Amino acid sequence: MKYYKLALVSFVILFLELLLIRQIGTEVRIFAYLSNLLLLATFVGSGIGMLVKRKFSLQVSFILLLVIVLLVRVGLFSGITDLLAPVNENIIWFQSDVSSLGGVTVGLALTLLLFFLVLFVFVPLGQYLGRLFESSTGIILAYSINVAASIFGMWAFYALSWLAFSPFVGIIVIQLALIWLIEGKKHWPAVVSVIVLTIVVGWGVPDQTSGWIKTVWSPYQKLSLFEYSKDDLTHSGYLLNVNGVTYMGLYDLSEERRSWIEDQVKNVTLSKTYNARFADQYQLPYLIKAGVKDALIIGAGGGNDVAAAVRADVMAIDAVEIDPQIIKLGQEYHPEKPYASERVNTIIADGRTFLNQTSKRYDLVVMGLADSHTLSSTLTNIRLDHYLYTQESLAAVKKTLKPDGLLYLSFDVNEKSGAGAKIAKNLRTVFGHEPIIFELRDTTFFGLGGVIFITGSQAGNTERYLSANPDLQKFITNRLVSYDTNIRPLTDNWPYLYLKQPQIPSIYLWVSLCLILLFLAWHRMASWQGNFRWDFFALGAGFLLYEFQNVSKTGLLFGSTWVTNLFTITAILLFILLANLIQAKYPMSLKLAYGGLVLSFGAQLLVPLEALNALAFYSKVIWGSLFLNLPLFFSAVIFITLFRQAKEKSAAFASNLIGSAAGGLLEVLSFLWGIQSLLFIALGFYLVTIPLLMQSRKALRLTPFAMEIKRP
Questions:
Q1: Which of 86, 114, 100 is nearest to 27 (CA)?
Q2: Which one of 124, 525, 532, 612 has the fewest beta carbons within 10 angstroms of its own beta carbon?
Q3: Whether the Cβ atoms of residue 620 and residue 557 lie closer than 8 Å to each other
Q4: CATH of the structural domain 530-712, one choice from 1.10.10, 2.40.50, 1.10.287, 1.20.1250
Q5: Where in the chain do CATH 3.40.50.150 domains reside?
């Protein structure tokens, strides 16, 4: 076997998996919230390719990539988000809730069409990989090459993201790589023609942001910048559009601009409670608490909050923002150039991680609207913003405040989700007194507005500050709101900000039901080869369920950033390579591997994450990585042991991939019982492999479970 082909197809599968999740999740908004559906498509497509008898040419992948690029670019799937609104209890901003039953049907049909287009891209690739496994005489070496090449594929994807390249560049890279896997140069002219068409479509077909002044791809999202007219009364500066959605402005709120606005609105009929002196949500915290010397801004974004702090003569400003490209846009385009001030310390980091690591104390903490349109990982249904509003996170905020400190938190509350009630409840629980909550929805001359939550490190601080300014106190009193806080609080175990109560959103159930019915019908019609292995299926499901909660925990330790995700998944794959090496040189018995698996799972349940957070950074990196990934090491030992003994390698590997897809579907159970519950479910899948192994011991040539694996 030519191992370079095995390495190349393995590289392509992992790189393309991440690439399509990123591109489709960006261009078709609902898939940013359902990215596990795309992950499922890649796993099932690869698995079906290994099981189905019919041969598929790699040219199918070429053509389908072109079709996906074309259909996404022309906007065929852009309406799915609104069409599926009636069956979605999980809030998606700017989702129009006017669809009918017919609209839901069309939305489901388009969702399934896109799902199967992605699935069939991976069928030829999986089939090619399966043939290479079957022809291999050294399966541990072959599987190790597969894993190592997957690591390179992942690093290449993140390098592309870090360099801010469009996903279309990645698709061209994949198509060029696939040329070297196609047998027979006679097909090359047709393949090259497809590549040229993909380039033409990717860069020649305009999208909704065509004509905007700038579009960049950050490691997290697609950012597009639009410039407002200088004479626009309600907007100034620039609009930053994220993944096709209005996200934030880069506003000119300088004294000169404010004076111009106030002159223009003199003859405009406004609310009786409107007062231009207090209508700027960014300036307001410095009017409430005068003399702020040290300020922390979490979610600094394009720089509006930073500009307000600079105008308020704050001496030291720590501005934390997770997306480096947003910071760059703010530095280049914000009209007031706040990031250029010597008093501003810009920190590219996850806000939660900064809170855990800093020892500094602040007069004021400003939490800007942190609402991410993308995921912290391609293997998770947690969005970046969720962990900022949990009880544990707000407790970290409280620790950073001075005794007379103030927290100023803004959020655009949509009551369908109960987000306002959750934030209010957590603030009351953590700080020990009721926060002051008011709306700023009639002040759009100075920004998008929203709901403001204010609380002090000590009871009475906020009221004391307001009493010093009766006009400001009246302005806020006229806008006070309250929420029914009889609602489940946000915690690190249940951080679902946009889900009103523990439930599986209907959209997940409907899409899953449609997929199951279609696969049952397909299973009856298609011709299959090899015996499906339920033990490998269970191993795959357990692996992905554990990996999901592992990524979430790692994010809490080191930050939910793209860098953390890169190193986390790399560490997992390196543990798999270590397991392969041990089984090749000094084989571990299945009995010992299962014992280690159960004990390491028990440690996950008993040892709190705070114990690792208390360690120094490098100790936390070493011991945290070892502790969190140890169960995956033992599961990798079990997998390679059984894979080595399997007669039908491609069928076994396919069963594992399809099991991983099942684990992806079951991850939504964390919506009901919390992320920690996935540990029990994952362990259950691992343990169920024991009776399955005992049933198949003759095929595997193993005694019931406890036999040592013989050396080759």
A1: 114
A2: 525
A3: yes
A4: 1.20.1250
A5: 218-477
pLDDT band with cut points at 50, 70 and 90 for residue 1? low
Neighbours of 580 (CB within 10 A): 23
Question: Distance between CA 129 and CA 119 in Å, rounded?
Answer: 15
pTM for the whole structure: 0.89
pLDDT digit string, tens, across residues 477-515: 999 999 988 999 999 999 888 788 898 888 788 888 888
If we measure between CA atoms, which residue out of 195, 56, 84 comes closest to residue 511? 84
Q: Which two tokens stand for residue 60?
A: 């199918």
> Please, are residues 212 and 241 in contact by the beta-carbon 8 Å criterion?
yes
- Convert the pLDDT of each residue in 243-282 to its tens digit: 877 778 899 988 888 888 777 777 666 666 777 778 889 9
CB under 8 Å to 145, separation ≥6 — which residues? Answer: 3, 6, 7, 10
Count Cβ atoms within 10 A of the Cβ of residue 701 and give its class: 0-12 exposed, 13-18 middle, 19 or more buried: exposed
CA dist 570 and 556 (Å) reads 17
Quickly list H helices, 364-505: 391-400, 419-431, 461-467, 470-477
Token pair for residue 678? 């996935």
Distance CA 480, CA 417 (A): 20
DSSP 318: E
Say which residue, 497 or 572, is predicted with more confidence: 572
Q: Which residue has the higher pLDDT, 107 or 447?
A: 107
Can you give the pLDDT at residue 378?
45
Homologous superfamily assigned to 218-477 = Vaccinia Virus protein VP39 (3.40.50.150)
